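Quick start: what a row looks like.
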Amino acid sequence: MTCYWDHSNKPSAFVVKQDGIEIHRGCFNIGYKMYEEHQKKQQRKMEIEKNKELQEAIEFRVGDEVSKVGGDYRFDGIVRAVFTKESGVIRLVVEDDRGILHIYSEKNLTHK
């Protein structure tokens, strides 16, 4: 079965091959399910691309040894996680040798 999408990226028709003959039908119930699956695939592709771009943009990686820069205290540790907030800004979770976790932006850290 093949589904065709209209200009608004919604299913408009699907084709079923039966005995070598293509039968065209409107996409309603089956089409909507296919539309949802298609949307999920597209969203996943966008997330993967965004993740690739994020990984290229980030200076630090999980496992990097880092030190906090500036301020009135020192914090040395290992990057345990890198993530983006809903706003899109990048944050890093750093763990020291006592197991204490701090969250920093990239500008607050330097490689050891």
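That is the whole record. The chain has two domains: 2-57, 65-111. The longest helix spans residues 29-57.
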